[in-house]
Amino acid sequence: MQKIDLLGLDIACYKEKLKNGLEVFMLPYENKKNYFISYATRFGSDVLEFVDSKGKKHKLCEGIAHFLEHKMFEQEDGVDPFTFFSESGTDSNASTSFDNTQYICYGTKKFEENLRYLLKFVNSPYYTDENVLKEKGIIAEEIKMYEDIPDFKLEMKLREALYKNSSRRIDIAGSIEEINKITKEDLYNCYNSFYSPENMFVLIVGNFSYKKALKIIEEEIGDIKNRNKPKVNTIKEPVAVNTKEVILKENIEVPKIGLGLKVSTKNMKMDDLELDLYLNLLTTLIFGSSSEFRERVRNEKLLSSMYIEWESLPDFKTFYLMASTINPEKLLEEIKYELDNLNISINAFERIKKVWIANEVKIIDSIDATVNNIFDDILKYRKIIPNKLDIIRNMNIDNMNEIIKNINFKNISIVKMIGK
Q: What number is the average pLDDT over the span 193-213?
């Protein structure tokens, strides 16, 4: 077992890799009462095609990863996992994103029993023609519900404007037409291909014994063999955005805007973690809550709410900005002005670095925040980052300016959502 000291945070993470390839990450706390367990697979809605170990090509229905997640809660013995966990006052849930599916439980009681059950039910798929048919109706209603949410519709239209080929332009849940094609055989095919130990990991944070936890995991998963070794086909995506501007007319009172920036990383001479940190620092400086831009648009009463985020794809980083505003044209002018007249001062740069360092120290005291932080690192970089504080401290303005030179700030898509 490997002990990984998180430098500057006075806490350690334990990592073990089982013989079958399953990775286990454990971060025990002595001063907490609660715990959080995540059992995850690196299989999300991004995967729409793969080649199996025999060379056979498989084309998947859109939304199948999300559909499979729903069906994992259908157990052959009739026991409902939600009911099982709730009997000990433990919460449970599951989620599917573009690049992963995870099953979680969190609480304060019966850690060992709940860990064992979580592993068992995720390792016990049970699909029938009847329960698959029933689920289609449930997921169809979920898809319809999201289609009526303006923010969701804005994001999907922005994704369609940004991407020409990437599966990131498709709703994680798929479409009603696509999910109606899914069969139990399709689900078993995906499960046996992607729910294999070497494609999965366990993350546990909180009050527990890491030695006892590892023993349970080895008992429940240690003998499971990898069923298939699929090769996922990467979809080629052009550098240029797909559509420059889209206008939507919806039943809304306050207009909304979405702006997406597509950044090629081919000429960025920096590892992925550092590049992510610099890009996030850049947009925090430009659009963060303490930025001059945010103060200015607040004073002009241009902004009701705003959300910013980066996401990573092979060869790309994509920036999303979505906002509600009474004057979309004026707000877009202000945003474009900021992007066209970037001038990052060293004082502002160093100030945000100090804030980030303080936040990293604070995060470690929150189990939920720590889980999110480490989970993201495992997915993006396939490892725990023990020296993140040092990496942040060593960031410098020269590297930031070099990155800015390599970004084409004209390569943007805009979506305007206005009232009918």
A: 96
Q: Structure tokens of 261? A: 């920036």
pLDDT per position as a tens digit, 95-153: 999 999 999 999 999 999 999 999 999 999 999 999 999 999 999 999 999 999 999 99
Instruction: Check pLDDT > 90 for residue 10.
Output: no
Residue 411 phi, psi dihedral angles, 5° rounding: -85, 65
pTM of the full structure: 0.93
* Cα(284)–Cα(412) distance, integer angstroms: 18
- Rounded distance between C-alpha atoms, residue 220 and residue 22, angstroms: 12
Rounded distance, CA 339 to CA 332, Å?
Answer: 11
In the block, residue with structure tokens 């206005």: 418
Give the whole-number percent of the chain exceeding pLDDT 90: 89
Contacts of 343 (CB under 8 A, 6+ apart): none
Beta bridge partners of 77: none
Whole-angstrom distance, CA of residue 43 vs CA of residue 379: 11
| Distance separating alpha carbons of residues 361 and 203, to the nearest angstrom | 20
- Token pair of 101, please? 């599916």
Chain segment 78-98, per-residue pLDDT in tens: 889 999 999 999 999 999 999
Helix axes 272-287, 292-299, angle to 10 degrees: 30
Say if CB 148 and CB 405 are below 8 A apart: no
Model confidence at 314: pLDDT above 90? no
Cα 416 to Cα 134, 158, 284: the distances in Å are 37, 9, 23
| Residue 299 vs residues 129, 334, 409: alpha-carbon distances, Å | 58, 13, 26
Question: What are the residue ranges of helices labelled H in 16-162?
Answer: 64-71, 81-86, 111-122, 129-147, 150-162
Which phi and psi (to 5°) does residue 378 adopt? -65, -40
Instruction: List the structure tokens of 104.
Output: 């979680």
Condensed to tens digits (0 to 9), the pLDDT of residues 68-81 reads 999 999 988 888 99
